[in-house]
Amino acid sequence: MFYQTHLRSIALILALGFLAIYASFGSYFAREIVVEITILAILAISLDFCAGFGGMVSLCHGAIMGIAAYVFTIMGVKLGWPSLPSATLGLLAAVLFSGMVGWVTARTSGIFFIMATLAFGQMAYTFFFKSRWLGGDDGMGGISRFDLSWLGLDLNDALVFALLGVGVLFLVYVVASILLRSGFGRVLCGIHSNENRMQAMGVNTAKHKALAMACSGFMAGMAGIIAAQHTLYISPELLIWTVSGEVLLVVILGGIGTLVGPVIGAIILIMMKHELSNYTDYWHMIVGVVLILAVLAGGRGVYGQIEVWLEAFFKPQAPKEPKEPTESKEKEQDLA
Amino acid sequence: MLKVDQLSKDFGGLQVIRDLSFQVADGERRVILGPNGAGKTTLFHLLTGVKQASSGNISYAGTDISAMDAVGRASIGIARSYQKNNLFENLTIRENLMLAASAATGKSNWFIRDASLHADVKTRIEETAEMVALSDQLDMMVNAISYGNRRQLEVGLALATKPSLLLMDEPTSGVGPAMIDRFHHLLDSLPRDITILIIEHDMDLAFSIADRITVLNFGEKVFEGTPAETRGNATVRQIYLGEAK
Amino acid sequence: MKSILKNLVVIGGLAVGIHMPAFADTKVGLVLPYTGTYAALGNAITEGFNMAIDEAGRSDEFTIITEDTEAKPPVGLAKARKLVLQDKVDVMVGVVSSGVLGAMRDFVHQAEVPLIVANAGNNLATGENCSPYIVRVSFSNGQINRPMGTWMAENGVKTVYTLAPDYSAGHQMISSFSAAFTAAGGEVLGSEFTPFGQTKDFGPYLANAQASGAEAIFVFYAGGGAINFVKQYGSFDIKTPLYGSGFLTSPLYVAAEGEAAIGVRASLHYIPTLETPENKAFVEAFMARYGTMPSEYSVQGYDAGLALMAAVDQGGTDSQSIAAALPKVSYVGPRGALEIDPATNNIVQNIYVYDTVMENGALTQKLIDTISSVRDDVAGCQM
Amino acid sequence: MDASFWLLQCLNAMQYSMLLFLLSIGLTVIFGLMHFVNLAHASLYMLGAYFGISVSAMTGQFWLAFMLSPIIVTCIGAVLYFTLIDRMRGAGPMNQVLVTFGLIFVILDLVRLGWGDIALGLEAPAELSHTVSFWGISYPAYRLFIIALGLVVMISMWVVLRRTQIGAMIRASVENADMAASLGINVGRLFFLVFCFGCALAGLAGVAAAPIFSATTTMGITILIPTLIVVVIGGLGSLEGAITGSLIIGFLETFGAVLLPSLSAVLTYMLLAAVLVFRPQGLIPARG
User: Fold this and answer.
1) Which residue range is the domain that position C279 belongs to?
2) N or C, which terminus of chain D has less Cβ within 10 Å?
3) Shortest CA distance to A178 belongs to which of A267, A53, A84, A59?
């Protein structure tokens, strides 16, 4: 169950503060990195929302993001709509797609849910890959950034764009935390914990899960709009399943089910990738080793582990900490 | 009033419930007796809609609910507790009760407000905790409390939805005599506007709380009557009580 | 070892600048894939490029920064931005996949930093979407396949069945081939596009191609796909002769294809067995340096290096002047005489039709025909 | 397109099915027994192909490579078992998926370091490099060999699982590992044996596939998804499921390519989605 603890608030402020400072005082490329981190972090929050709290480990979040980006671009570039309505429609498309996926896959769980979402994601990927009208695998360009001059903001300025990205990340975090604290979010955690009991208490869990996926789709859609605005170019590459795999990696690396962990995971992964690729072409291996070590160290992720340590430090008999064996047993049943 | 009419259920070739008919009046305490494999738990599955009957009808409060699914039946006030603990293991007792309360009061559709802060939900959590004697452990994780306390919470989860019809599947299974007394007390204290069906193996408890008793054997109703009548019935003695002694 | 640069022919009275002092430091950004499917290509191009610079003894003159695109469009674009906006490079070299080129195109055009394309063959990059800042020294998809269409029709092939992976480059390769083939009187009896990156088993498609009754099969496959295709074609013992875009039997992959590659006819802008003094010197130098035969990708990197140096020699000191000088580059290199067409900024070069043959126990390329100075149409390009 | 054309395509479909079967059976049995989703299974397949190529290049003996490569892969599997896999049992599926996902990255880069980025090929052995003619078609002998290999493995697995002591032990452990342990079955050793056997099959599939498909660094990742689809469609942990799944996917992809080429890229995914929506546990689940 989600609680916006002080520790989480502090971690979030530190993470966002770091991004803002890094963008403000860093070089041009630092700003690019900050935007990349924001996009990945938003996507990771979106995935943590449904995977960490709803137990729906989706492998189609890349596709959801891509659909938002594509619809946004089709409306703006191909049909000449103004950017705000295009973005709204893009978000709507993402919400509808992920809600639909959530609805039809509601009966599956564990690896079956993962595979089902993979299937839907890959179908969307193939659709855009094969659409000659949309440039196929070459993708589409010609996107322009939002005109926020009425706010005195020039989005073509890398710093402004990066800071705005951080702002949107904060907003998405707030949306996710409000949703998770609401009655809806509480019940979502209940479904994750024990779906059949939740049904026995009168909750239509299929509908609930579909709605949760739709909410998650909204957040992933936000990432898609920023991604399109950032690169001013989109390609089916956005939708491919490995993108979703990377997001999952970020969520786990940071700490699944903590909401702020994924933000930290995104910072770590992108920074590590850029630093490592300067030195070696074999950085995948290092990422792999880090991933293995992270799981061997307890699987709580970087932030998750810190949270456990700090909670133990401040309240020696913290009642919130779940017991290890029961949890893993429960998860095992989840998959079987 | 709960009305079960000609209910049958078969799995493959096996008839688990056959031609079962009975009625339970509002506010009644009805104990279901029967040896293992008599179809008691299956009857509960059929009543709560987890499984669909092969034939026959169930009606509750004047409406036919035979075709209604589990979620629908829960939302018209039918709640159950389970024979094997079926709790939210990695959450606290408070959170468990809160989920039940929010589910039953439609707070699951609140997208912004925190249901656990709502006065309605809060009082219900406290009231229920009081009823099942868990008030002093509200913030304990379920996987850290004793087995007996989990049995209490099992009933608490059902009660927190404020049901009008409560099905309890062996609430005292696996607990010691002291705990059975507690359950006795709990059952006595439940308000009379709740109709209760209870599967119970502890004879003393069963006979002292029941208004009427229905005895099942091999999926069939073999007897129905008051505790006193049941005690005196030869068939029941033979197939059930005899066996128990 | 004789420097290849000595073979540079100067056209238009511009001075060759071998003796130019290395004061003007030029920053070059290499944007190539070093991980993922195209890592081998990125490495081959880098090898060729480095060799050109080193051979000329001008490595102090150029600061080279390499960036890995992972062959992913967004990554490639981010890396290009980094090179231009942070590292302030004067010129970029690279791009293997058309998708990455597509992603970078608008940015390069607006940033006005020249990009020397060393592989990506997307027709549009020097067609509809051409830019004064994008100069291609590799090939265009049409350039390689159009001449082959005409050549096959003229050399007695009446009907073909075509196969290619289902992605943009596949479609461009096949459509330019088919257009030229039909224009020269041939007929395309059937055409199939196989799912990109997924297809491992070509058995079903080969059976289809055979059943079509066409006189020849024409395909475009590259990399692992090319190896699979040729080997499977060989194992089925298909009598219909196989023709293809030269990437099919590229020297990089032909060893893995084995005997199945024998007799496959293909067209390409470079084969390492060209009997010209320039190429012999190049191959010898390349073998000495890296111990392997050069491939068309190595040559593309090499020529990117030569073109860059030639542009610098013609007075290119910064982005603008290099961009202005690049279209004027022309010389005879390993692949023969080449020049940049100022109307499209695409290379004008020979296309070679060759056979793969077994010679002294090793597979090698045997030149059959040369189509000289193939120039792309100005297809909607406005500079 | 006459009857011989369809026969040819059926053989193509069978050949592809059998390769998928060799890969998926290992994955599914490991899952059924240990509840472990080993994504790195496909990386072992890749290693099988690369070791096969190396052994064959060093000795010039295809059949030696064919024998040795699965053994080498099994040894690597055993090392992985003791360093990681055994430790990760009971750590929850999420963590298992991630650890093996990390392994994919590591093995991928190790292969790049060891063999380079360029695709490599392996020649089919001389005695199988011809084509066989029958019923009006001629078909590569090597492909027939793969079909035969798959069928032999399939039948022997069925016999072992249904008719032998160890098969009974495996089935009992799939049914209920705790119960099996209480009956005196050394479940830990059984797990290890089955895991090694799965690795050997993955290595075998790799070296068997190398003469048809080239060995590339991405071959593991590319085959992973179809294999997972086979296993999930069939129902995790069941032998019959793996057989059914690989036949369905093999025939669907082959005839999809022939009959519905424009849809062939998504046919498999459409089937997967449809199966999971209507039968969320797969077609033939291991239990119940």
Assistant:
1) 6-139+274-342
2) C
3) A53
CA pair distance B24, D213, nearest whole angstrom: 71
**B164 close to B193: Cβ distance less than 8 angstroms:** yes
Check if the interface score ipTM surpasses 0.95: no
Contact of A225 with A86, CB cutoff 8 Å: no
Contact between B116 and B122 under an 8 Å Cβ cutoff? The reply is yes
- The two tokens of residue B51 are 């499984």
Q: Which fold has domain D8-116+137-278?
A: ABC transporter involved in vitamin B12 uptake, BtuC (1.10.3470)
> C20-50, pLDDT tens digit by residue?
444 558 999 999 999 877 888 999 999 999 9
Triad D44, D50, D55: Cα angle to 5°: 120
Give yes or no for a contact between A214 and A99, defined as CB atoms under 8 angstroms apart: yes
Model pLDDT, residue D93 = 75
Question: Domain check: are B3 and B48 in the same one?
Answer: yes
D4 at C interface, C-beta within 8 A: no
Report the pLDDT value the prediction gives residue A1, as an integer from 0 to 100. 85
pLDDT tens-place values along chain B, 245 residues long: 899 999 999 887 788 899 999 999 999 999 998 888 888 999 999 999 988 999 999 999 889 999 998 899 998 999 999 999 999 999 999 999 999 998 888 888 888 888 778 888 899 999 999 989 899 999 999 989 999 999 999 999 999 999 999 999 999 888 888 889 989 999 988 999 999 999 988 888 989 999 999 999 888 898 899 998 988 888 887 776 555 44
- Is the pTM above the cut of 0.90? no
* Inter-chain CB proximity A252 and D87 less than 8 Å: no
User: Would you call C39 and D112 a contact, using CB atoms and an 8 Å cutoff?
Assistant: yes
Final residue in a domain of this structure, among B161, B180, B195: B161
Q: pLDDT value at position C301?
A: 95
> Which residue among A139, A277, A284 sits closest to C99, beta carbon to beta carbon?
A139
Nearest to D12 among C192, C196, C207 (CB): C207
- Confirm if C309 and C75 have CB atoms less than 8 A apart: no
List the alpha helices (DSSP H) in chain A: 6-25, 28-51, 61-73, 83-104, 110-130, 158-181, 183-193, 195-200, 205-231, 241-254, 261-279, 283-296, 301-314, 324-335
Is D55 strand, coil or helix?
Answer: helix
Beta strands in chain C (DSSP E): 26-32, 62-68, 91-94, 115-117, 134-136, 159-165, 187-194, 216-219, 242-245, 265-268, 330-333, 336-341, 346-359, 362-374
Contact yes or no for C39 and A139 at CB 8 A: no
In this structure, the answer to whether residues C148 and C126 fall within a common structural domain is no
Q: Which domain holds residue B146?
A: 86-161
From the CB of residue A310, how many other CB atoms can be counted at a distance below 10 Å? 15
Domains of chain A, by residue range, sit at 6-239
Dihedral angle of Cα D164, D167, D168, D173, to the nearest 10 degrees: 160
CA-CA distance, B65 to B57, in Å (whole number)?
Answer: 8
| CATH code for the domain of B194 | 3.40.50.300
Q: Which residue of D has its CA nearest to C209?
A: D258
The count of domains in chain C is 2
Q: How many domains does chain B have?
A: 2
pLDDT mean over D34-39: 83
Closest CA to D39 of D26, D48, D51, D50: D26
Do B114 and A181 lie within an 8 Å CB cutoff?
Answer: yes
Chains C and D are in contact, defined as 3 or more C-beta pairs closer than 8 angstroms: yes
> In this structure, are B43 and B59 located in the same domain?
yes
